[in-house]
Every structure is written in structure tokens, then in C-alpha cells.
Amino acid sequence: MANCNICGEKISRWHRAQTQPHFINVHPDYLKWYVHYLNRILIIGLIVVVAILNLDIYLISKYGYATLYPLVLLLAYGVVIRIVLFKNLRRFRLAWDKTHPLQQ
Hints:
Helix content: over 70%
Strand content: under 5%
Order of helices and strands: EEHHH
Number of strands: 2
Largest sheet: 2 strands, antiparallel
Number of helices: 3
């Protein structure tokens, strides 16, 4: 069992967020945002990976080797998506705490 990141209720680890009954019934606004967030990550992530691949190909053709610069871009992308996730989780948690003050 795991705890919900928003309200702390015990939930199953074996469901993805999109099929988790708790999120469907208790946090539908979070679930809608999360599905949109995952779609955005996949699309932007694909663009980032293609850009990094092209940059690697260019660097190899120009200098004969690839530098660490593309890896830094990939790491920066990972950091940004985690910051966005945690910022929005905090927003949903604060909204939940305001509407459910007795369940803290």
C-alpha cells in the first residue's frame, strides 16, 4: 500500500494514476491535470530527445566526438519536469487541505 500524495489516504500501488479508483472518485481535477501533464511530458520529451540527437550528430560530424552538453540539456529537462510535478502536487494538496480541514 502507498499513501495518496494529496490527502494521505492508503491506496494501491498496483494501479496507474489514470486507473486508480481513488483518483477517479476523490481527485478528478488532479487526474485531469496529471493526464494532460503526462501527454505534455511525452510530446516535449520527444522533441528534446530529437533535438539532442541532432545536436550529437552535428557535434560528431564537426568535432569527431560528442560533448556532454546534450546530456546537460537532458538532465535540465528532467529537473524541470520534476519541479513542475512537485509544484502542482503542492497546489492540489493545499487546495485539499482548505476544503477538508478536519482530515489533516
